[in-house]
Design brief:
By secondary structure, the protein is of the alpha+beta class. The N and C termini lie far apart (159 Å).
Length: 782
Amino acid sequence: MLVSNGGLFLIALVLALWTGAAIWALITGLQMRRAAGTARRQLRRLTRLIDSGPAIPLIVRSDSRIEGPERVARWLGLPKLPPYLAELSQEGKGLPRETLDLLGQKIATAQKSGAPFELAVAAAGSNRRLRIEGRLADPQTIAPGAVLLWFYDATESETRMASLVEAEAETRRAFDALSGLIEAAPIPMWFRREDLSLLLVNSAYVEAVGGSSAADVVQAGQELVETVDGLTPLAVAARAFESNTPSRRTVTTTIAGTRRAMEIVDLPIRGRGIAGYAIDVHDLILARQATERFRDAQRDMLDNLSAGVAQFDAQRRLIFVNQPFVRMFQLKPQWLQDGLEFERLIDRMREAGRVPQVRDFPAWRDEKREWFQSAAPVEDSWLIADGTHLRAIAQPTPDNGLLLIFEDRTEQVQLASARDTLLRVRTATFNNLYEALAVFTSDGRLHLWNTRFGAVWEIDESELAKHPRADELLKAIAPQLKRPAQISALREVIRSATLDRSQRAGQLVMKDGRVFDFVGIPLPDSSALFTMIDVSDAKRMEDALRERNEALVEADAIKTRFLANMSYEFRTPLTSIGGFAELLASGVAGPLSDQGQDYVKAIIDSVERLSAQINMVLDLSQSQAGTLPLKREPTDIGALLVDVAKGVAGLAGGRNIALEVDVNGGPGSAEVDRQRFAQAITAVVDNALRYTQEGGRVLLLGDRFRNKLRIVVSDNGPGLDARAQARALDGVLQADEAGGKPVTKRSGLGLPLAKNLIEAHGGRMELVSEPGAGTIVTILMP
């Protein structure tokens, strides 16, 4: 069969197209295969990424079908992922029903409005706490109306958040406690911002600067410390802040109205500001100064002792040696300037030949070095080559040092040799004493006596030489007593002195009228010394003085009654005189000349002054008799003192006297008769003002001293000598005795009346004065 050329061409073309299509299909298939493999690998990577990621996706379709990895089921405590959303809640597993219903509502809202949502849930079948974020899915990527849920495991973050909340609460409690501690601190504390302005202060700071509140102090920027040596508190704080180094300095400043030494500390807090506090070291400085003065006084006293004293510190260096020690061991001054060590000092003492001669000196010196480790004082005896006998006492000190005391006991040997001579001297002395002496041993026997003892009791020396017992001796002397029963008192005195070791005394009367005082004194060797002395003449003088005193007391009582009666009698004519004088001054009897007016005024002033003196005499007589009525009531002593100062301000101003009142010590209140107590204080202050020269100064102080109310009135007047002080409180002090002249004539009864009024309140009044140094009157009330 023949095919034309056109047919061949057509066949060839078809074959070529078929071959090309096959090749294209092969190439396309290979490309699609490679793309599918790449997609599968990409899908596996994305699946692993999702499985290892912190969040798991879950697709909820519009028909409530769900799609997602099985990790969601494990997180919810389910065996496998169910096909529908409603099946995520099962008995004891999955989501609680209430939570699932809420999730369904939010999914429905997202499907309608497209609004995303978040929800925190807890799985019932596990301990996980989950956070669900939901949003409407891309309809082209997933499906129309589907919602994509992302599940996040918030268990660790929730636990960490709970721990952070607890830590924050604990930190807040610690901060509140610290703030309360700072606020309650008794020392001023403050904090500055980075610009050095005050941010906060505590109550002690407010009180120290005299502020009303912490806010006002901070707003006003009140500084606790004054400028010292040109440095302001801000300058010191700025220096500490810039160097980031704490600043500590001691300054003197005014705290609550009183000058005190304060240690000021500024602590820089990097990036925060400056914290500061102030410690009152005033008392500490005074204590250190007192300690130094005590140490210097102690060392001066040690220099005056006869014993040699040396003190070593914890490094065994010599820090003090007194002059007797230097002389005793012949030490050169240049040796003592080097701070000798203990061993070196022993060597120097050996060079001077002032240590005992021993065979092995190094071993002996090492033995003495152990004194530093001794728990108790060590006593040693040193016999020097020249015959000097020293007693050494090594006393360890609390600071691991050592105190050495050397006492020269050479004379004691000589005293021991003279003991017999002293005994003979003692016997001769006993026999020549005016007192009758006897010594009884602990078993009650007569051991020693003098000749006076035998003469008083008229007992023969031979009988006393038998050393009779006390009972036998007392039985023999009983008939010589005016009242033989008194012998029991003698027996009790001897018994108490020998057995009870207590001293007792008494008095007895002899038949011949003689009177003896006797006493039993315990002696160190368990014996007792019995002494008798004839006091007949003194007894007669005492009786005479007693009778005279009784007469004087009766005379004083008569005088008091006389003054009281006369004071009452004086009031009637004084009232008449004063009344008529006032009538004359008012012009009832006709106009008076200027001189007449002066006379009438003088009469009225004299009547008022005499009336005041009479009232004072009456109060004084009543207080001395104990009949002055007192109406006690709670009284503010500080306000009372201020009122007293106002009452005498005219007198102080007229004489240009500075009257100062100090009640900052807080005298508080007391149960007193306000009128009488004020009268007493006024009398003392008035007395001080009248006897102080013009331009002087009087201080009225009220405070608490040793749990007692103390009121002090002091002046810088001429003062009183000892004789005038003794008479001042008796109402007989005159102006010349006080060293000056009062402003007006006075009766001198002000201080005695004040003293009686104070004592009537249960207190006491003391007067201390010295010529040229002023007078101090102190009133102490319980």
